[in-house]
Amino acid sequence: MFRGTVRKTIPLLAFGIGIAAFPKEWRKGQFKTEKKLIHINDQVIQQIESTDEYKKLVSDPEIKHYTSSKAFPEQHHSNYVNTGLLFGPSLMEIDPMVFINEKTGELTSFYHLGDKLISQDGQIHNGVVSTILDEGLCSAGFPLLPSKKGVTASLLIDFKNQAPPRSTVVLHARVKESKGRKVVIEGYLETLPLSKKESPLLIAESKCVLVEPRWFKYFSWLQI
């Protein structure tokens, strides 16, 4: 009986110590990483900042503005799609610029898609579009969850047109339903007109169901 108790107690104790100790080091960011993203396409950023839509968002005091890389621990940048795996020249050429009204659940974010993100037909791969929609819609819903964290329960995407390479695109997302540990978000991705003569090209529409697992509340103190 004593041996059985020891066998059960030691693993649980080790697990508890690991949970308590590891996040502390994680939050300190002791893993060596670049503090500043390189290969940012400054010309694209200037073009975005010159649009009426950007200026309107910046001037709204109810809207929070940040770049995507600021939304998660620095040491994970290299493993993150938009600022790591697919970031660089001719790939994701800017750190996605995000604007969100956390009270209403409205989000707008800007991306630039390089010509190395294409599929066999020469247009931007739909997998890239899916990643943007999943990430963006979830970001709109996170603030309305009890612990501000959750997972994608379902993601429906209706592809309308393929995004051309070297295009700047903008995601518009809005929370349609929020109840307890479940949030429903809808949104669409389109090209960003850089002049008044251009019209946006609708790329895809999407609906996301975001949920917070019950056990998340026990780890709300983790900064992940």
UniProtKB/TrEMBL annotation:
Residue span(s) of domain Thioesterase: 122-186
InterPro entries found in the cross-reference section: HotDog_dom_sf (IPR029069), PTE-AB_protein (IPR052061), Thioestr_dom (IPR006683)
GO cellular component labels: mitochondrial inner membrane
Domain of life (superkingdom): Eukaryota
One protein family per Pfam: 4HBT
Name this protein carries in UniProt: Thioesterase domain-containing protein
Species this chain originates from: Lodderomyces elongisporus (strain ATCC 11503 / CBS 2605 / JCM 1781 / NBRC 1676 / NRRL YB-4239)
